[in-house]
Specification:
Length: 322
């Protein structure tokens, strides 16, 4: 037992400078992990305007939307890298985050700074090739996340609001890049869903900090379990109601030439309930938003929702085609 505990300790104490060990390949792997490519799945929201505009098979629009997706992936990686640089000392004191490449010393701070600059330059240069409103949205997303990393993540409720705004900017970016008018329903559902997930993550973190007797996020000092529970109930209800209203809106039904979109409502309800179960049932997990992407039931539900929505929105009609 003594050896096991010893092996679980961080490679250096929080007050010590990180070691400079490992070869080039080790550092490359550390750089890739710092970029968090597994988090790029969040940027599928960039493709939502094209999907719900019934233009998913329009090659030019899809290509522009995919380009916007790539820009937001690189920008997100730049933000993650900057955030890890800002939080390096705090991460070294965290039971899980201390193993991140920069905090553990696997990826040198100097290399991380260079990586952040390269990612920002490439992503914003790519955004500049698109429409001016897309470029402005990409810049706004980057500035918002810088403000979040340096200050706003320490302010309760504002921190979750920043996360939700980031998702809305993704949707706007996809619409501007493809030149598609975005439904207010899509923006509202995106904002409400992001708020719900954000409050769920804070509730999970607060429960962890209470169990361990220490808070690893400054903003948690201003949160309370009761307030977060209320926020979760309100945002969960608002998300489901807004999505249901979207599927039942006569204008939307005429747009899709179908009144069957309501069939996707149960999948939305199940996704909300399943997230709450994961948040409460896996207290030792690092994050409920990461757990949901590892959960078979949750992922299966998303896939089935996407297939059903696709079948309804893009069903073949002999007289009009797709």
């Amino acid at each position: 037992m003594g050896d096991a505990n010893h092996l679980s300790e961080p490679p250096f104490m929080a007050s010590d400078p990180p070691p400079s060990t490992g070869g080039m390949l080790w550092r490359v792997v550390g750089g890739i992990k710092t970029m968090r490519p597994h988090q790029w799945v969040k940027n599928v929201f960039v493709l939502a305007p094209v999907f719900f505009s019934k233009e998913f098979f329009h090659a030019d629009l899809l290509l522009r939307a995919f380009g916007a997706f790539c820009v937001f992936c690189l920008l997100a990686s730049a933000v993650y890298t900057i955030n890890d640089l800002v939080d390096v000392q705090a991460d070294r004191a965290h039971p899980v985050k201390r193993y991140r490449p920069i905090a553990s010393g696997r990826f040198p701070v100097t290399a991380a700074k260079v990586l952040a600059v390269v990612l920002v330059v490439i992503s914003l240069a790519g955004a500049a090739w698109g429409p001016i409103f897309f470029f402005a949205t990409a810049v706004g997303y980057f500035v918002l996340n810088l403000a979040y990393s340096f200050r706003l993540k320490k302010v309760a409720y504002i921190d979750v609001g920043c996360i939700a705004t980031g998702f809305v900017l993704r949707v706007l970016g996809g619409g501007f890049a493809a030149g598609i008018l975005i439904s207010w329903y899509l923006l509202a559902c995106t904002a409400l869903l992001a708020l719900f997930l954000g409050f769920g993550k804070r509730r999970h973190e607060l429960a962890q900090s209470t169990r361990k007797g220490s808070k690893t996020r400054v903003a948690l000092d201003s949160y309370s379990p009761r307030a977060l529970n209320i926020a979760l109930v309100l945002t969960a209800s608002a998300t489901v109601v807004t999505y249901a209203a979207y599927t039942l809106d006569p204008v939307i039904q005429r747009q899709f030439n179908s009144d069957w979109l309501w069939l996707t409502i149960p999948f939305t309800i199940f996704g909300v309930v399943r997230f709450l179960q994961l948040m409460a049932g896996r207290p030792r997990a690092e994050s409920p938003t990461q757990e949901m992407l590892r959960d078979t039931l949750f992922v299966f539900n998303i896939v089935v929702w996407a297939l059903v929505a696709f079948a309804i929105v893009y069903r073949v009609r002999p007289e009009v085609g797709f």
